[in-house]
Amino acid sequence: MKGIGTDIIEIERIELAVSRSGQQFLDRVFTPAEQEHCKGKVQCLAGRFAAKEAILKALGTGLRELRWTNIEILPNYLGKPEVKLTGAALELAEKMDVARVLVSISHDRGRAVAFAVAVGKEGRDSAHSNSE
C-alpha cells in the first residue's frame, strides 16, 4: 500500500456549486463520462468529488499541477466505482509505483464520504519494503 485517503462532504456544497457556476463547475471537476453517468444527480456528483479528494490524499498531493479531470471515477459492470488516472495524476502515480487506486463511496444524511487506497506495484508496497 502506497497511501490512503478519506474525505467527507456535505452534498449541499456541491448542489450550491452547481447552482452558482453550472456547467463551468461541472466541466472543471468532472469528465464528460462522469457527467453522463451522474446525469445531474447531486448525490452522485458529491460522491465523486469526495472520492477525488480522497484519491489526492492517498497520492499525498493536493491539486497543484493536477486537474480534477485527471481523475475519473465510473462504475464497472457490477456498479463498483473504478478509478482511471490520466495526465499529471497518472504520471504522479507512476513515479510513486502505484499500480491502481481503489475507492469506496457512500452517501447518508446529506453527506458523501469516500475512502481511497493507492496500491503499489507487486513487491513495491512501502509497508513491505526493507531498507536494511
From TrEMBL:
Keywords: Cytoplasm, Fatty acid biosynthesis, Fatty acid metabolism, Lipid biosynthesis, Lipid metabolism, Magnesium, Metal-binding, Transferase. Residues 3-97 form the 4'-phosphopantetheinyl transferase domain. The keyword Amino-acid biosynthesis does not apply. It holds the Pfam family ACPS. Mg(2+) binds at D7, E53. Its cofactor is Mg(2+). GO terms for biological process: fatty acid biosynthetic process. The keyword Transferase applies. It catalyses: apo-[ACP] + CoA = holo-[ACP] + adenosine 3',5'-bisphosphate + H(+). GO terms for molecular function: holo-[acyl-carrier-protein] synthase activity; magnesium ion binding. GO terms for cellular component: cytoplasm. It is found in: Cytoplasm. Transmembrane segments: none annotated. Its EC number is 2.7.8.7. Belongs to the P-Pant transferase superfamily. AcpS family. Transfers the 4'-phosphopantetheine moiety from coenzyme A to a Ser of acyl-carrier-protein. This is Holo-[acyl-carrier-protein] synthase. The lineage of its organism: Bacteria, Bacillati, Bacillota, Clostridia, Eubacteriales. The gene is acpS.
